Amino acid sequence: MATSEPNSRLRAAREACSSPSAQGEAMSRAELAEAVNDHLWRTTGRRYALDSHAIARYERGKVRWPNVTYRAGLKAVLGADSDADLGFHPVPRGRTVRPGSTGAMHLTGGGQQDGRLWVADLCGSSDASVDAARALWATDLDRETSGAETAIPEVDVSAVVLRWLTASNALLTRRREGTVLASGDDVAAVHRACDMFEALDHEFGGGHARAAAVQYLNSEMAPLLRGRYSAAVGWDLFRAAARFTYKTGAMAYDAGHHALARNYFVQALNFAHWGGDPALAGKALSLLSHQANFLGLFRQALDLARSARMGTQGQVSPGVQAMYAAMEARALASLGEERACTQALNQMERFFLTRDAEQEPEWLGYFDDSEVHDEFAHCFHDLGLGEATRRHAQESRSGARREYRRSRTFAGLILAGSYVLDQGSDVDEACRIADSVVAEAGPMRSDRVRSYVRRFNERLEPYAGASAVRAFRQRARASLLEAP
Prior knowledge:
Blueprint: H1 8-15, H2 29-44, H3 52-60, H4 68-78, E1 110-113, E2 116-119, H5 126-146, H6 157-166, H7 184-204, H8 210-225, H9 231-254, H10 258-274, H11 278-294, H12 298-311, H13 318-334, H14 338-354, H15 369-382, H16 386-399, H17 405-418, H18 427-441, H19 447-459, H20 467-477
Antiparallel strand pairs: 1-2
Protein name: Transcriptional regulator
Region (Disordered): 1-25
């Protein structure tokens, strides 16, 4: 767990203000809280209960992104022009990025385990792509079977994307070597297995069957990729490998294995490239964008989403373009660029409404009306727009397929959060919804779900003394809030 970093800017701003009761002394935390409450009463006509304990948590860095009402009150009382002037920064859903840091990860770009080497890059041949993927899968299995947390290198994603954008088209030719003869039935079996793991992922979380998915890639997929096949079967085989590999990477991402997930997404990009499928390549980049946004790497997330769109221009269907626009919108929302985010959301909606579902890739089946509402809800939530968030989150949650339990959980927690976003905060309703959502989620093996719960819990800090908040925290602590 990341250590909280003190918010020196907020403390300095408070201490620069004179105490109204003791001339020459700095304003105390209690006096600041009272001043904020008075300001909010005068400007909104509503009573608020900010106290010295909440101010202390802000200054200690325990809460880095108070709700929009308290941020506005603090800026008004302390004379600050922006949230950043008071040391407040949006909270990434995943890895904590300290204020002032770039959020950049250590990049090494390759790995070795027991003599096997993989390079997380756009490989120069289909055989090199297969060898790199096999080494990654074998290393991942070693981690699972030995129980050791083998170091998985980070990936220089920017360099990989640049090489993909500038690479010439790559199509497979007939492969005459190998002991296994791959056929269309083999490709169909791979897709069927992938469907099964995808269903398990959506309902029980990425940590549930991830090791079994890696085992399938290593024992079933690898021999086919190194076998004999015609050019047509080869293209289908590499596309199936791309889909299965990105799905396994998505399970690693959901389980909190972020460096590992990035390696899987890059290997999926390789397979899509050699399989001649730009839409699948863009899907791999979209997942990298989604993950970067989750980790707080918002600019990188925006670059990746735009690279997916630019690198596949004129080659993909409207539904796929809608998915790219959604990733761009999410990154823009995280950056606080409301106008540009709204434009991207409108573009997503236009593409979605013009799609022909029967002509879209089968792997895009999850991107339905519920998913579109979910994208709107997430973006509006991150922009602090409570009413709009509420409307779309309700639509997403009610329309989500029953087997998509994790998606319903995300939408439910975003819905709960919408009740503590703005001036019309309703803590009791927020906790009531969150209680129901956490109970339905159960012991889902998803680090992302736990991150959403923790983020919602942090939004409750200004209301820590409310009975509904105390009751929610007690129940959530026993399930998801403090789960490993």
